[in-house]
Amino acid sequence: MAKKLESTLTNMVLVLTGVAVIMGGILAYVNHLTEGPINDQKAKALADGIQSVMCVDGLKVAKTDTVRQNDAKGKELTYIIYQTQDAQGKDLGAAVESTTGGFGGDLKVLVGFDTEGKILGYTLLEHAETPGLGAKADKWFQKGEKGDIIGKDPKEPLTVSKDGGKVDAITASTITSRAFLLAVNNAYNAYKATPAADAATGATKQVKED
Questions:
Q1: Cα(9)–Cα(12) distance, rounded to whole angstroms?
Q2: Which residue, among 124, 125, 122, has the nearest Cα to 94 in the 3D structure?
Q3: Is the pLDDT of residue 117 over 80?
Q4: Which residue among 8, 119, 138, 203 is the one 20 to 30 A from 51 at the CA level?
Q5: Does residue 96 contact residue 79 with C-beta atoms inside 8 Å?
């Protein structure tokens, strides 16, 4: 009886192990099949986002830079700067990826700057803010809206009116508004640290190429 029980347990372990191996193989295969399309979708979304925030059709990304800077707490933050040009090769400025901590989690924005550092446009790439409140950042700071930042130069950091600034915060979402503006300000500082912006603004070079 004991041998039969031992044999049964062994068979169960072998069967479960076999099932786990097969399922692992299937998942790996499915992941392999979907990885390409997912990456393609992300690349397209980023390309569309860059064109949107730069407000120019037919532009190209001439160069991609990575800037690493420490925040006030000493945490290293990474920014991706996409230097852009028009079809004739004229510099248009850059689109910058910037991430800060919002009310519900990370808030990642893509901000477009012209060659002088003025904001051309922006879009939210990722956020975990409360739907209907913090999520309004996607529209609230656009041109013609209450918190309009388009055309502003963050040389003087953008802040909400509650903190003495000139930007109206999202109703009932001051924390998200502060996080969003910090992401924009940080994006501007990262952009100034790139060689292209250095030539135009005299910023100090702190760039590390990707």
A1: 5
A2: 122
A3: yes
A4: 203
A5: yes
